[in-house]
Amino acid sequence: MLDYHRRKDCSLRKLIQIFRNQWDISGDVYAVNEYTFLLVGFNYDGNGADTFFWAGAANRPGPQGFIIPNEYGKTNILDRYHNKDFTLTLPDRKKITEIKWLAVYDLNNQNNFGDVYIPEEFDPPRVQNGGTFSKRSHNVSSSAIEIVDSKTIRIKDFTYDGKGKRTFFWTGVGAQPSSRGSKIPDEMGYLDPIRKYDKETITLELPGDKTIFDIDWISIYDLADSENYGHLLIADNLNVPPSLVKITPYEFSLPNCRQLHKNLQVSWEVFGPQITLQLSGQVEQSDYMSFGLSGSESSSQMIGADVVVAYIDDIRGYSIDYNITSLAPCVQVLGQNKGVCRDDMVGGLDSFQLNTYSRKDGINTITFRRTLISSDPGDKEIRLDRSNYVVWAFGQLDSNNEPAFHNFYPKSDILIDFNTTEPVNDCFSFTKHADNPVQTWERVRIWEPTVRTFNAYLGPSGGLKGYQGITGHVSSGLAWYINGFMIPELYLKRGLTYVFKVRGGNNPHSPEHYHPLVITDEPRGGYDRLSDAKQSEIRVLAGVEFTRRGRPKPTAAGPLCLSRYPANYDRRLDDNFPSFKKFNRSLTTACSYDEPATLEITPNITWPDTVYYNSFTHANMGWKMHIVDSYNNLRNSAVSQLTHNNKLGLILFIGYLLLQTMRQCIA
C-alpha cells in the first residue's frame, strides 16, 4: 500500500471521503502537489458504460468538464477497481486550485457516480524548508534541510567528521534529542554507524510506517556517549506531500528480530540444542541473502566466516552452508577449492535444514535451522554464553546460482546475542519507492585501425554504473581494463594481427588475483570453472591450449597489474562517481616490473562476428570483441552518429567562424 498516514492534528493533503452510493464508489483522496491527486483504497464496480475520471470548474459535476487520464496516463473507459492506491495527474498542467470537483462520471448518461469537492481555502502541499542542523560538535553542519514529503528528508551540504564512536541518524519525540529514539537508515539504507560526510547532499527516508508527523527531531547522535552532535527540530502542521512509497509490513513467526539493513531482517529462536533462523529480504527474484558467524572472534569479518546462502529459484527455496576463505568466487587452487565455497565442496557438510520459503509482495522469506554445535568441524559454534560477531550480505546470483560479488554488505561490527532473556525486536516494515533507472558510465569502443596493441590489466568493476550496468551481468568485483578503459568493446579486422599484453596475475596460488586472459564465443568467461559438458559447448579462440589428457591450460597468464581503491575507501560509494573517468582518477595502480604475458591473435573468416575476452578462472570480468571485414563501415557509422548528435554544435561552430571572418574583414 502507499503511505498515507497522518497525525490527527495536521492538515496534510486535505483528506476528503469520496461519496458512497449505488455504484459502490469509495476511497480517500489526497493532494500530492498542485497538479496530482492520490487515491487510497479506491473502489469502483466498473459497471458504468462510458465512465471516466472527470473534473471541472462548475459548481457541481456535469457535462462541462474534462477527462483526467487514469493511473497509466490513458483516457480509457474505467475498469473495475478494488481497494487500489494510485495517483492521477491533471492534464495540460491544470492545477487543483483551478477546479472545484473530481468525479467518477458517465459521459453517455451524464450520471455522477461519486465526487469530491475541492475546498475554497485549499492550499496544495509542497516541499517545506525545515531549517539547518544546529552546530554542536564533530563539525556537524548543513545548509537547507528540506522536508520533501511525509517520509523523505533532503539534507544539503551535510558535513560530519566521522569520528564518533557509534553515531547514527537518530530520531524520536520530545523537546530535545535523547537516547530514547530510533535509527534512520542512511542514504543507502544501512543502519551502521554513519561515515564521514563533506558538504554532501543526501536523502533520508524515515523507516517503516514512520512519518514526519510521528517525530519531533532528527539528530546526529552518538549512542556510545549519549551525545547529540547536532539536530533539527521538526515544526508542527507541515503541509507536505504524502509519501508515495510502498509499505509492506514485516511478517515473522519467531520471537526475536534484528533489522540488518532497510531491506534485510534476521529473526531467530533457540530451542534446546538447535536454533531456528529466518531471513526476510526485499530483494529481486534472482538475489541471494547471506547471514552467518564472523571469521573473527573480535570483529565482523568475511574472511573465515561460516554463513548460509539463502535464495528462491523458480521451483523451491534453498539454505546452503558456505565457507569463505577468500573474497572471490569458488575456484580450484592446486587441487583445493578456495573462495566463497559450499561446505560440501571443501570437505564439510551442509548443516542447514530448510523449513519454509515464500515470496510475497517482493519479499523473500526463508526459514531454516541448524544445531548450535555442528557435527561439521569446519562450522563455527553459535555461542549462547556471549554475543556473536556476525556478517551479512545480499546481492545477485550468477548463472550457476552461486553468489556473485554482493551489492550490499556492512562495514562495521555487528554483535547479536542469541540468548536474551526477553525477546528482541527492532524490525520495521519494508518500504520501496519507484526505482529510478541507473545512468551507467560511458560505453567505450576502440575501433581505430592503427591500434593493434591492447594493454590488459585488472581494476575494480565499479557499482551498478560500472560493469553490471554496461553488460547486464553480475560482477565478480574485478574487471578487465584495456588501454585504460573498463571493459571497452574492441573492433578487430579479420586478417590483421593484434597483441594483448596481459597483466592479470600469474600466481595460481591466489584465488583472487590469478586471471589468465582467454577469448571465446561465450560471453561470461570463467572457462576453468565450467563442467566438461559446458566446456565442450564453447569455442575457445585464444588463450588456452589442451594437454594430452584434454585438460585446458591457460597460455596468457601475466604478472599482476591492479588498480586499487585508496586506503579506507568504501566501495559501496562507487555509484556516486558521475563518470568512469572520475572514478578511475580515484584509483591507484600498482604493477609488477616483470614483462607481461603476450597473447597474439589474427582473426580469420572462421571467427564469429562477436567474441568475448574474459578471465580463464572467474566469470564476468570482460566484454565484447567485434570481428569486422572492414573499418570503412565503422567510420561512416561514426561520422553519421557524430553529425546527428552534434548538428547544432556544428552550425554554431560554423557561425562562430563566419563571425570571426567578418570581424577580420571589417578590421
UniProtKB/TrEMBL annotation:
Keyword Repeat (UniProt): yes
PROSITE patterns: DM13 (PS51549), DOMON (PS50836)
Keywords: Repeat
All residue ranges annotated as the DOMON domain in the record: 262-395
InterPro entries in the record: DM13_domain (IPR019545), DOH_DOMON (IPR045266), DOMON_domain (IPR005018), Spindle_Org/Thrombomodulin (IPR052126)
Residue ranges constituting the DM13 domain according to the UniProt record: 16-119, 131-235
Entries under CDD domains matching the protein: DOMON_DOH
PANTHER family: KNICKKOPF, SKELETOR-RELATED
Protein name, per record: Protein Skeletor
Protein's organism: Glossina austeni
